[in-house]
Structures are given as C-alpha cells and as structure tokens.
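Throughout this chapter, every protein is written as a compact record of paired, labelled lines. An example of such a record is reproduced below:
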Amino acid sequence: VNGVNGWSYNNTGVYGFSKASYGIVAESGNITTSNGTTTAGTGAAFFIKPDPQNGPPLTGAHFRGEVHVDAGGNWYICQTGGASAPTPAETIRARFPSASPDDVQRAAVGAAPVWSLIGGASFTPYNPPVGTTINFLSTPTRLYGNPFYGPDPKVPASVYGANPQFNPLYLPVSGTFTNGSNVQTIPAGATAVLATLVAYNNGPSATGFATVYPANAAPPTVATVVYTGFTSTLIAVGLGTIPSGSNSGKNGIGIVTNLPIGMTFDVVAYWT
C-alpha cells in the first residue's frame, strides 16, 4: 500500500511547503531493495525551481545531500553541512531530523556549508564572523573590467587591468570608485565583499575557471567559477592586505585564471 498518492489531470499531484524545514521528505524503510522516491514524466522526471540568485545559498543552515539550482541553471550539491551563523543543535535536529551529527555540530558553531558545483569545482561561501554587518551599496560598482572583446563603454579606461592568466591579479577593494556618475565608497575596515563575477571566453564552447580569494592568502586549488562561453555568478569573498605590486598594502583580493579571459567584478555589498 502506498503511503501517499497524488494525481492530477492538469495541475500538481502532490505539493508540500514548509517555512522552516523540508516541504516533503520521502524515505524507504528498506534502502537495499527500494528507493525513497521514483519519478517519471514525459516532459522531465522532476523539476527543481531555480533560485532567483546566482550561486549556492550563502545564508541559513544547509546539510550534505541538499541539491540547489541557481538562476543560471547551475546545479550545486552540499558536500559538507553547516550554517552561516551559529545555530543551536536542538533547533537543527527539530527542523532537519535527517542532518548528520557532524553537520549538526558544524552548524552549532557557525561553520559554513561547502557546496560543490556539479560538473565543476568546490565552492565555499564566505562565513562572516559573528557581530559583522553587511552593507549594501546604493548602486553596484564595477571594480574591474577586462576588455577581452574590446573596450566596454560602461567601464572607464582606468578600471582596465592586465589579464590575470596564471599570475595573480591583485585588485584593491577599499576606497572610492567612480564609474561615470556612479560614485561608491568601500571603507578600509571592510572585511569581505559580495560581488558579481562575470567570466567569458572566445566562443560559446570555450571552458575555463577563475578563482577569487583574499589577497593575503595563497591561491586556492579550487575554482570560484567554472565557465563555458559566458558565465555570471554571485560570490562572497574575504579581503586581505595586497602583498606586492603597485597596490601593495591596500585591502583587496587576488584573482587567477587558467586561460586568457574577459572578466568583470561588480561589488554589490561589503561586510564590516
């Protein structure tokens, strides 16, 4: 006998909604001989509604096994659970009874979840320390624009820089930035930024990666974005002191890529 049956001629067969936990949980008591769910459909076996933002979730508690689809249609799976802020273990167990003990412990201390881009590299969201505040700019401001396809009239020439292929590009983030009539200031005390990273290559099938990281750290061995042709993603990255070059000593980020690419970096908000 089936536990739940749902059927509709022209609408939803089964619908579940929860404001604080899972909308629907399906399990089988004998996992060696039966599946938790079976789906089929002439259009598609199942549908995951995309998030309106790019990238994996940066806030809240998330646990290994969760699957997320962003605005660009990119699929992410949570490899290691956690939470963007310390969350009591009893709260986690009540809302997410399937969460593993390790993930519950990570969430309790505010360790950020680790997401993996399906078909790409790992993505670890910035985990702001307790007591920090996010400050949204009145208008996003472009800190970097690389004219791979020639000058972009929306990017002032002063913003252009050398393509960071293989070698780090150190980009100062704190200061006053002017893009036409748009003037925005990011204070020296900023600890991280929320930004849109756009990476694009020559041709719709060209594939590569770009990695963004705090300037005082070594380049990570994982990618921030894996792109094919043209890819836009929302990222959060910590800031650090630039170690060398003309911007030495300033607060900023490092960027490395594996191919000559076009790239823009537009800041939306910063943490202090």
